[in-house]
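pinned: reference chain
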Amino acid sequence: MNKSPANKAVGLEEFKTLHSVPLEVQAELDRKMMSVGDLLALRVGDVVTLPRAAGENINVYAGGALIGWGEVLVMERLLAVRIADLRNTPPPIADFPPVAPERG
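pinned: its structure tokens
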């Protein structure tokens, strides 16, 4: 079996055929568990604190799978994310949600 670097790992070249496929990208500030009672008690103007420290990188997902981390920015009054780090390995295929077949 040939173990040259080109044959050792799956490269991004193999994904070229998917180049124009749309994929939802999400930037998640943080997650927090709340009781139903606390959730029902929320009112307009209430502040929900999150465990992530201000300035800490946030998670970036593509197709529901974690692909890296980024820094939240404000650019021309819009939120943006500067990619700070990407996963070294592709997410396991199990991380991606199943794709429903098209009906036609």
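why pinned: The two ends are 43 Å apart (CA to CA). Residues 1-8 have pLDDT under 50 and may be disordered.
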